[in-house]
Predict the structure.
Amino acid sequence: MIIDVHGHYTTAPKALEDWRNRQIAGIKDPSVRPKVSELKISDDELRESIVNNQLKKMKERGSDLTIFSPRASFMAHHIGDFEVSSAWAAICNELCARVSQLFPDHFIGAAMLPQSPGVDPKTCIPELEKCVKDYGFVGINLNPDPSGGHWTSPPLSDRQWYPIYEKMVELDIPAMIHVSTSCNACFHTTGAHYLNADTTAFMQCLTSDLFKDFPTLRFLIPHGGGAVPYHWGRFRGLAQELKKPLLKEHLLHNIFFDTCVYHQPGIDLLTKVIPVDNILFASEMIGAVRGIDPETGFPYDDTKRYIEASTILTAQDKHKVYEGNARRVFPRLDAALKAKRK
Ligand SMILES: [Zn+2]
């Protein structure tokens, strides 16, 4: 089985975006703020948006199951207050839950949280619990920078985040550390802000003793870990100067990386540097990079091709990357599959 641990609902029917635009307009003028019940999307519309997009490509490329979360760049936690984020997260999560119910063999949910700059992250817990307990979601996306590129929140090691971690440990779910759209003109959303955040999150963990407090907490750092694998020597050296244990002991029981790296040399470097037990297959399809690579003739985000072509990974390694590691990092996914005798 090939599990893609990183997919977003980027193809939701247009009614969702229209509702969001009205919600944003309603921040200034409450008289135009839409009710949740005014968003109407039928099962047929949901089916169509998936069958002709993500599911079609999954079948063409040969992946079986996607961990599916709301569109990351649309989370836009910086817009409005907690109430705005809360209504928006609930709607987006419910749509992912419905997609998972319509296509139970191909999608399982991960939640966005109703984060809002300056608001205690603990306010996200009711939505998180609903998604896991009622919708059967197997993970969350945690935004380390709800300000959208201004980094006004404390680092992930700060006690402010601990209530989320306590709940994650209790429910045995990992978090993908995933920012949203950048509203800072210096940072392009998917080309800079995402990769900066991946690198930043890793360094925040490295300089702290977070995983001493939470030995079973698991973070998935997407987009191949940003700059982390490429600069592994720098990070090892910095950890040494800080008198931290070797990174393998210090971080690699708790931090994992995905394969959303869109060229063969990048995947080769990732798999050479990072232990195979810490790498999970993902494509982030349909996502930020949708074109065809003229050098290969194949889509950049068809990441399975790079794993298949790898001469570094053995057949056993590939099985870990495709399935084994995902089952270990997402125990609720493993349980859901086992319940279906998969
Ligand atoms: Zn993503």
Q: What stands out?
A: The chain has a mean pLDDT of 98. The first helix runs from residue 14 to 28. Residues 6, 8, 72, 178, 222, 284 surround zinc ion (CB under 6 Å). Residues 3-11+44-339 form a domain with the TIM Barrel fold (CATH 3.20.20.140).
